[in-house]
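REQUEST FORM: STRUCTURE PREDICTION
Request ID: SP-0412
Submitted by: Lab K.M.
Chain count: 1
Length (residues): 163
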Amino acid sequence: MSLSPLVMYDEDYRRILALLERLVRDASARGIFLVDKDGQLIAEAGEMRGVDSTSLASLTAGSIAATGGLAQIIGEEEFPVHFHQGQRDSLHITLVGRRIILVVIFDERSSLGLVRLRVKKVSGELGRIFEEIRKKNERAQAAGFASPFAEITDDDIDNLFSE
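STATUS: Completed
RESULT:
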């Protein structure tokens, strides 16, 4: 599912990162990852060093897409919340808006109830921030400001790496 490019400014990123860092503390989580539905990592917080965040982002987006297909088969639009329990760590995955995926990794220091409670509050705040970002992007496009990458072609990229 390819969506229009998400252009985020530094102040937006800092607001998002502050929310994720607060969620790590409030939910006693090991790590938080914010991913778009295309599988791109947006931000991360917590102590999850050594985790392949690129693979995590890609696999999370794939999982959301697959369960979205399952939802449609049984007549649902999508499943907005996913939970996976492991022996040591558990994953709580939530859709924020239509394009953002919030992944919370937690262990025995926390509980599913606490994570769900804290995620619910932060999801609303993240939703508002991403709505503001979407509106900024629309205003910029309407004013004629193209993405800084709009003029880069596949040939330009090939030429860059062939040298």
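NOTES: Residues 79 and 126 are 18 Å apart (CA to CA).
Reviewed by: T.R.
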